[in-house]
Design goal:
Elements: H1 2-16, H2 28-37, H3 43-56, H4 59-66, E1 80-84, H5 94-102, E2 106-110, H6 117-128, E3 138-140, E4 150-154, H7 157-166, E5 172-175, E6 179-183, H8 190-201, E7 211-217, H9 223-229, H10 239-254, E8 260-261, E9 266-269, E10 279-285, H11 288-297, E11 302-307, E12 320-322, H12 340-345
Parallel strand pairs: 1-2, 1-4, 2-3, 4-5, 6-7, 6-11, 7-10, 9-10, 11-12
Antiparallel strand pairs: 8-9
Helix pairs in contact: 1-3, 1-6, 8-9
């Protein structure tokens, strides 16, 4: 079964990357339906997310990823794994569903109401590439989730506390809100800053891998950012983004908070990591070692960091990637640093547990 699943995944990768006419991101009706359900899911955002998911399914990438594990052809013991998916980005829960099925378990999926269209379409496409008579081990749940043996759930800080309480009797991977940061050293070229703009503005800055905080060397000229990032000015035409921008600008100006703004992004000096939509926090530093120590102490709030030269050692435990790469993770770049496949493969060592409390 595993071999046929992976063979179908190669075809699904082509579907996701738009290599099949009128299918996947070439299906205008599908993209329109996704955007009607969630106005943040623009056609460009959906296409970008689908392409990223498709790149993960390239045969060489899949071989490198799954070759790291001893995955049996048939599962030792199939478990029902409850998946509570987030909906902040298109297909943000796809990796959990993919991992669960590849590991030989049944995916009991509770899709986010914000991202039910695309995830359903992708699973249907995968099923369509399987031989007749073979079915994906998938169950869709709306409302309460019952009779699962393990849980992988993603949500806000408040939701995560709910997960911890209701799934306390189950093996689980529970993820809370994280964000990403960029560290500049002042030597950045225009091309570097342009690449960093992708990390900041793609998906409207709403993902855990979106850069929402800049660390800048003392004396850095912020106009260098504005001069390059003007190509993202079209964000101001998006109603929901513009509403966020206008709201935070009004509140901060009312409170006499110093701001730099250019009509589509607010730059605010702030020690917090997570800036709201339409804004970007920044902070100056003079001691690189002290900065790295600060970031390491707060690593549980960060998904990744982006820099000009990721090869240089930083001492950070979070992944460090080059500018422009935060939104293109490999399948082994696990959210929150938790190896999902290892967790799933280890479930066969757990005894059959009592039904979970409904979620």
């Amino acid at each position: 079964m595993r071999n046929t699943l992976e063979t179908a995944l190669v075809q699904l990768g082509a579907w996701l990357r738009g290599e099949i006419p009128l299918e996947g991101p070439n299906n205008k009706s599908l993209l329109s339906k996704a955007e009607i359900e969630n106005r943040w899911f623009t056609e460009d955002a959906c296409k970008m997310a689908m392409k990223a998911c498709g790149e993960m399914l390239a045969p060489t990438v899949m071989a490198e990823w799954l070759g790291r594990y001893d995955i049996p052809e048939e599962p030792v013991e199939t478990k029902r794994v409850g998946l509570v998916l987030a909906g902040n980005l298109p297909l943000v829960g796809w990796h959990d569903a993919l991992s669960t099925i590849i590991a030989g378990h049944q995916a009991v999926i509770k899709a986010s109401s914000s991202d039910a269209v695309l995830i359903t379409a992708v699973m249907q496409a995968w099923q369509g590439f399987l031989p007749d008579g073979e079915k994906l081990q998938v169950e869709w749940v709306v409302g309460k989730m019952n009779n699962v043996d393990a849980v992988i759930a993603t949500g806000s800080a408040n939701t995560n506390r709910y997960f911890e309480y209701y799934f306390s009797d189950l093996p689980s991977v529970l993820r809370s809100q994280r964000t990403s940061i960029a560290i500049l050293d002042g030597s950045e070229t225009e091309a570097d800053i342009r690449a960093l703009g992708n990390d900041v503005f793609q998906y409207f800055g709403m993902g855990c891998r979106s850069v929402t905080k800049l660390y800048l060397p003392e004396g850095f000229d912020l106009d260098r950012l504005f001069n390059v990032w003007v190509e993202w000015s079209h964000l101001a035409n998006h109603n929901k983004y513009a509403n966020n921008y206008d709201y935070h600008k009004a509140v901060w100006l009312l409170n006499q908070v110093p701001l730099l703004e250019n009509g589509f992004v607010l730059l605010k000096e702030d020690k917090a990591f997570l800036s709201p939509v339409g804004a970007l926090f920044y902070e100056f530093y003079s001691d690189e070692a002290a900065l790295h120590k600060h970031l390491e102490l707060n690593a549980n709030q960060l998904q990744c960091a982006t820099v000009k030269n990721p090869e240089q050692p930083s001492g950070l435990s979070v992944p460090v990637v080059p500018f422009g790469a935060t939104q293109s993770p490999q399948p082994w770049d696990y959210a929150d640093g938790v190896d999902t496949i290892s967790f799933l493969l280890g479930l066969s060592s757990y005894p059959k547990l009592k039904p979970s409390t409904p979620a």
